[in-house]
Amino acid sequence: MDSDTKTKGGPADFETAAASGPNVVAAFDDHQHGIVYKIQHTLHQTPSLVPLVVLVLSIAVFGLLLGSKFFSPFALTLILQQVQIVGIVAAAQSIVILTAGIDLSVGAIMVLSSVVMGQFTFRYGLPVEVSIACGLLCGTLCGYINGFLVAVVKLPPFIVTLGMWQIVLAANFLYSANETIRSQDIASSAPLLQFFGNKVNIGGAVFTYGVIFMVLLVLALAYALRQTAWGRHVYAVGDDPEAAQLSGVQVKKTLISVYMLSGLICAFAGWAMIGRIGSVSPTSGQLANIESITAVVIGGISLFGGRGSVLGTLFGALIVGVFTLGLRLLGADAQWTYLLIGLLIIAAVAVDQWIRKASV
Description:
two-stranded antiparallel ribbon; about 0% strand; globular
């Protein structure tokens, strides 16, 4: 190798070539910048947007068909009153489904908690405040059992909560002896049990404390899920529990806390149900588990876990309420309500599958 060769292949030539070359090492064509992809990505980032749009459109359609008959303060607040119990239970269902689980026992826990509140007050003569606390504790304990079996024993959530649904339902009827505590007795001896049924007038619209509690609960859960470490852990567990475990998330404790909170919220729903119907009945609220899942699915929370918003669940419950009241005011057969809600459920799952592709 002579001196000329060394000069031509030396550091100076290499630096000159590097300085005069293109700055971009490699570039690939991105075919995912179309309008469809942007919509898909937006919906992926804000899952509550779809149910909000559906809610607004349904209100607009029924408003055009019914006019002031539907847009009256009475009708709109009636929708809120009708969905308050489902909305509270659906909030409990939401946090469970966000962990990629499901809770089929929410309705039974709600009813049993209300029965405990009533029976402890009237059968044992305990102060109503103590009875309510016992009812809340009962719901939390049921949730803990669910969470322990799912997180520690590693049983499937569907099987655990299906079994708990049957057990709690049977315990409810056996303990209450299928006895209903009348509204008049509650009003005269323990009015605190009917607290959530009390009404307040705001700007001409009449709201119950149950409606106010539902809205505040949803806002509190939305904040906790988005702004706290616990909320981020809930999403992480629902998205990939093994990856969450490797990242330092205490998966078992998170799951147990979710099911316990779900049970506590269901107990509050039981208290609110007493205020809604006035009495303590062991046969009421039997379809709350199905109705809560309906609100969650229509609300855009993914059944696969890790994606969705509790605000969307509230919108989903309101959509059901709008369809129910709107069709009733139109004089349509009640079966049309079930038909349309069934179509909404299938459409919501199809949209969820489409939106999930944005993250692939």
